[in-house]
Amino acid sequence: MSLTAEGWEHFSGWQRAIEERAMREEDRILQAVAGRLMTFALKLAMVFTVGRSDFDPSTTRAVSLEHVQEATRQVETYFLPTARVVIEEVARSERENLQNQIIGTIRRAGGKIARRDLLRKLHVKLEDVDKAICALEASEEIETLQVEGKGPIKYVYRLTVSNVPSVSNVPSVSSVTQIQGNSTRSVKSDRDKSSAFGETVVTVGTVETVETEKTVTTGGDGGAERTATPSPKPKGEGDEGRAPTSEEAEVLADVAGRILQNWPGIAEARLWELAREKLGSPLPLAVVKAWLKESGYTEAGRLNGSPLWNPPAAGEVVG
Fold first, then answer.
1. Please, which residues have CB within 8 angstroms of residue 116's CB and are 6 or more apart in sequence?
2. What is the per-residue pLDDT across 153-175, written as a single tens digit (0 to 9) for each?
């Protein structure tokens, strides 16, 4: 089956007009789909011919001009606009998905990530990444920091405060009075601290024990009374001030080493969270701080309430 001479003439003129328009208007979508739509128009014209009620395969061998005209009209007025809408929608979804992917990558990295590490994880064209980052900066979902040091300036992307998930404050008990032993336990709860890395950290309350003086009577009736003051509890005896166990120290050293592979410093809250997950048991935040100090780390400041620690200088032993 083939087109009539008039049908070929109409189709060739229409094809040439579509291609010239695509080049003249620099319509990338039209340039991409034009070739497929040309073939589709020919197939559609053949379908119109075969679908006629009086079609006879033994006698009908050509596609008429009317069917070619109808096929090209439907392609240009329906299929081409539909293809444009679909392609633009897919492209828009990809752009939005890239922005969400960038936010998710930064959040999984602890709320901050260097540009080099972000590009390594995304595997997307540099131009598309830069456009997505500009859009996220304009919407104030992330911010870009410049880190100066040896060599060229490095860029770090950080989630803004509005993009850091948080949970409501955990209610705390102001004081608990213990009658036995004439001692009073006063529980002071630190405020909730939201780390800069996307997690909300609730620190363990600091427990202060104040024992009252005890009066002891000796010598029976009329005996002398003396006041005995209990000796102070040695520092580090409680769970809060103790040194880390060998297992805890080993886990903390391993987690700290993995953090330092991707970041020049350590966030105390991040180290505590990861070490606690790896141990599978409670780990006082004070034990983490004690390990950092014993291992030669130095506190470099705070970010959104979370202490930041620099690793030991070269030559010092960690852990």
1. 154
2. 888 999 986 555 544 444 554 44
HEC assignment per residue over 278-311: HHCCCCCHHHHHHHHHHCCCEEEEEECCEEEEEC
Spatial CB neighbours of 235, under 8 Å, sequence gap ≥ 6:
241
Instruction: Give all strands (DSSP E) within 151-297, no chain letters.
Output: 154-159, 176-178, 183-188, 193-194, 200-201, 206-211, 214-217, 225-228, 266-267
In degrees and rounded to multiples of 5, residue 227 shows phi and psi of -100, 125
Cβ atoms of 73 and 106 closer than 8 Å: no
DSSP state of 256: H
Cα 100 from Cα 96, distance rounded (Å): 6
Q: Hey, what are 242's tokens?
A: 């103790």
Whole-angstrom CA distances from 262 to 115, 151, 156, 215, 256 are 12, 18, 12, 60, 11
CATH 1.10.10.10 fits 109-163, yes or no: yes
Number of C-beta neighbours around residue 198 at 10 A: 19
How many CB atoms lie under 10 A from the CB of residue 102?
Answer: 23
Contacts with 104 (C-beta within 8 Å, 6 or more apart), sequence order: none
In this structure, the number of other CB atoms found within 10 A of the CB of residue 140 comes to 11
46, 55 in Cβ contact below 8 A? no
Q: What is the pLDDT of residues 260-313, one digit of tens each?
A: 877 777 888 888 888 888 888 888 888 988 999 988 998 887 755 678 888 887
Model pTM greater than 0.90?
no
Nearest to 69 by CA among 22, 19, 13: 13
